[in-house]
Design brief:
alpha/beta, three-stranded parallel β-sheet, Peripla_BP_I, Bact_Solute-Bind_Prot2, Rossmann fold, SBP_2_dom, eight-stranded mixed β-sheet, carbohydrate binding, about 375 residues, Substrate-binding domain-containing protein, single chain, 15 strands
Length: about 375
């Protein structure tokens, strides 16, 4: 942990002024860069930089889990949390503010990995370790925690083939994620490994900022170009894109709906799966991912080596191979909701099974 010279109150003012529009918040008794005045010693401070509020998991799952685990490992740690709302410039400002405040470590989910590389370099020059979370960031990061992105795509591709059944004339629409997100590139690569040569890709889109409304617009264009009855399946890279695609299919009176993939095990996605609108999602267990990242962040804030915590090494542009923890994703369909997200306590049956879904939940064994 670095020695501080700034006054604690000044540090938190600098940070929260810059990120006020992104819901700056903190927990713990000390501010970033500020020591405990009663003891005269510095206490570790850790920043959590989330990318957007469009994808539900960041604020409902990852953020709370990360904060809880950090506080469990380091009761006197101060945790600063900010959300970039999908704005690259705002996230750069948030990074700069945390660096200025002299925070001890940053957990970063980059809005745009390439655009944040300069900020990651600035953190490294200030001796502030950056743990890339879920998405691989560019620049000299200190550690990385995520899931095997190509395996996510392979799970989605295999599920889509299974849902569409046999036949050689199957045509799909690919609704990929934002190409600035390295994960989106991995998901697409994994999906194409399974799908290429087995289906015809009628239309393919890269969906900027992972926005469901962009997926809706793209899917409407695909329907106009291909015809409502000529789409046998939809590869949607995550649940938000699945929701946008399904809303466009319904708006264009496509019936029955083709099978649609997803990812992130959002509550709405599970309900769409039970209703029959979405075929599957990919569950990336949030708790072990957050736990691994929090453990790395606390160790990094204390100046400890991350090598002992790693299960792998990962290289990124602008950095040597760094310690990494790579976890295994899980395919979720109507048949295993109870044995995955319910069993792990992500959602309760009561949360999933609204009154309108009671019959579908009974049929799926969610009782």
């Amino acid at each position: 942990m670095k020695t501080r010279t700034r006054d604690a109150a000044m540090a938190v003012t600098v940070l929260c002024t810059a990120v006020a529009l992104a819901a700056c918040g903190s927990s713990g008794d000390s501010s970033p860069g500020g020591g405990s005045e009663s003891s005269g010693e510095d206490t570790p401070s850790i920043g959590l930089l989330l990318p957007d509020s469009t994808t539900a998991r960041w604020e409902t799952q990852d953020g709370p889990l990360l904060e809880t685990k950090i506080k469990g490992l380091c009761g006197d740690c101060a945790v600063e949390h900010a959300n970039a709302k999908g704005d690259v410039a705002l996230q750069q400002e948030q990074m700069d503010s945390m660096i200025t405040a002299g925070i001890d470590a940053i957990v970063l989910v980059a809005v745009d990995a390439r655009s944040l590389a300069a900020a990651v370099r600035s953190a490294n020059e200030a001796d502030i370790p950056v743990i890339a979370y879920d998405r691989l960031a560019e620049g000299p990061i200190s550690g990385y925690v995520s899931f095997d992105g190509e395996e996510v795509g392979r799970l989605q591709g295999r599920a889509l083939l299974e849902a569409m059944g046999g036949g050689s004339e199957r045509q799909i629409v690919m609704m990929n994620g934002d190409p600035s997100d390295p994960n989106a590139v991995s998901f697409k690569k994994g999906a194409l490994f399974v799908l290429k040569g087995r289906v015809e890709i009628g239309k393919e889109y890269d969906t900027l900022q992972w926005r469901p409304e962009n997926a809706h617009m793209n899917m409407s264009g695909a329907i106009a170009a291909l015809g409502a009855g000529n789409i046998d399946g939809v590869y949607a890279a995550n649940d938000g894109l699945a929701a946008g695609s399904i809303s466009a299919l319904k708006s264009n009176k496509v019936d029955p709906l083709p099978p649609v993939t997803g990812q992130d095990a959002e509550l709405g996605a599970l309900q769409r799966i039970l209703h029959g609108d979405q075929y599957m999602t990919v569950y990336k267990p949030f708790a072990p991912e957050a736990s691994a990242a929090a453990t790395m962040a606390v160790a990094a804030a204390r100046g400890e080596s991350l090598d002992r915590l790693a299960t792998d090494k990962v290289s990124t542009r602008g950095a040597d191979a760094v310690p990494a923890v790579m976890l295994t994703p899980v395919s979720v369909t109507v048949d295993n909701i109870k044995d995955t997200v319910v069993k792990d306590g992500v959602y309760t049956i009561e949360q999933i099974c609204t009154p309108g879904l009671r019959a579908a939940c009974d049929e799926a064994g969610l009782t």
